[in-house]
Amino acid sequence: MIKYREGLIPMLYYLERRDTSNPLSISLGNANLKNPHNLDLWLDISNRNSNTGLQSRLEWTYTHTYDAISMSRTYESASGRSIYKPLNINGNWNTYLGYNISIPLNKAKSLTFSNNTSIRYINSCDHLTEVEDLEKDCEPEKNTVRNIRLTENASAKWLLNSMTILANGKITYSRSHTSNLATQTAGVYDINYGLTATKGIVKDLDIKIESTMWMHRGYTDKSMNSNEFITNIDLSYACLKNRPLILKFICHDLFNQINSVYYSLNAQGRVEKWYNTLHSYYMFSAIYRFNKKPKPKS
């Protein structure tokens, strides 16, 4: 399928203005901006074999943005001042190719294997210029970041009486190359694997235990090449007549292992992002469901 669409630009960008309220970060407008346009292509092919239960899907997408809006930055290294101005830029596009399958491994179809393989390429363009004198006019320098991401995700699900067991593993390799920054390449691995078990202990009482090992390798900061073993426990109990009341106890990140860092690299070269994260906690909740049948029509 093909889709072509036009984007909109915030009206503030069109105003010929010079905002110096922050002397270290000066904002300009641009009355000559053009509206961006996006071309989207995608292909989706699915197949299911009713005899074997095999399901497969092939997906491909491509997006190209013409006259994208770049918030260009001109940076004066001596003073630390920057000027930001919206400009049109071309060269932003991305594509994705993925293939996934799911197939039962026994006649009872209680054991199922699934796998997803994908590759994504992102070409990002922006303007980033370093100058000695911020007041002199200069031609904005185009900066391009090329990101490629390879992902392999496999899982197996086993239904055993009142228990469900899910084993899964995922590995993602991301590599980035930027055209005019000091750090030319950055390649990282993110790996996770674990088990999830759900079981009815007694009538109306269920327990869910999820344990996952997260591994990070290849980051510029060695302390970020870490292992995090995350365990979550969920207990739920349905009570009263017709089970309208659900009592739930949640233990999140039992061993307090969650990290607050996420990897990314955009067209201006920011490699690592830090977030405020809620770590290990316990929570009790009560949910009451009100069910009211409509009155029969006379």
Structure description:
1% of the residues lie in helices and 63% in strands. With 298 residues, it is mainly β. The chain has a domain at 141-298. The strands form two sheets. It has a 16-stranded mixed beta sheet that branches. A two-stranded antiparallel sheet has the order 16-17. The longest helix has 4 residues, at 11-14. The protein is elongated and about 75 Å long. The protein starts with a strand and ends in a 10-residue tail after the last strand. The model has no long low-confidence stretch (mean pLDDT 88).
* Radius of gyration based on Cα positions: 26 Å
Give the CA-CA distance, first to last residue.
50 Å
H/E element sequence: EHEEEEEEEEEEEEEEEEE
Instruction: Please give the count of helices.
Output: 1
Basic shape? elongated
How many strands appear in the DSSP assignment?
18
Average pLDDT works out at: 88
pLDDT below 50 for ≥5 consecutive residues: which ranges?
none
**Strand content bin:** over 45%
| Most strands sheet | 16 strands, mixed
The helix fraction, in percent, is under 10%
Helix and strand composition category: mainly beta
